[in-house]
Design goal:
Elements: E1 8-11, E2 29-32, E3 39-41, E4 46-49, E5 52-55, E6 60-65, H1 68-72, E7 75-77, E8 80-82, E9 91-96, E10 103-105, E11 110-118
Antiparallel strand pairs: 1-5, 2-11, 3-10, 4-9, 6-8, 6-11, 7-9
Length: 145
Amino acid sequence: MSETAVLRVRRLRPEARLPERATPGSTGYDLYACLDEDLVVGQEPTAVPTGIAVEAPPGYDVQVRPRSGLSLKGVQVTFGTIDSDYRGELLVTMYVLPYREPHVVRPGDRIAQLVVGRTADVAVKEVGGLSATRRGAGGHGSTGS
């Protein structure tokens, strides 16, 4: 039997909550705001503290992703990668869309998801050309709307 990989999490403040899955089938682990008081998030990007730091197991990638429930309300979270050698506090960058009212983040609110996946160790090699495909260099929106 193979050993289960472990995401090491350090609480930087006693009131910080560890990431946890909402259901057994959840891909992401909920991240929680670790605040002393309510924080108003407007159109300007705001770094919201989580009160935790993480250490990914070798060969794994850790990403911060938005929560769909907040996105539906116009509250945006920037996608972010937590580098394997970063040991500082996880901060979640949040903002609201221009046509939405400011959003109040309260201590302990679920603000984002932490998704852990395996990484592929590949070599980068410069080449003179790439293989041809039907799509070619077609970019954003080139395969349909």
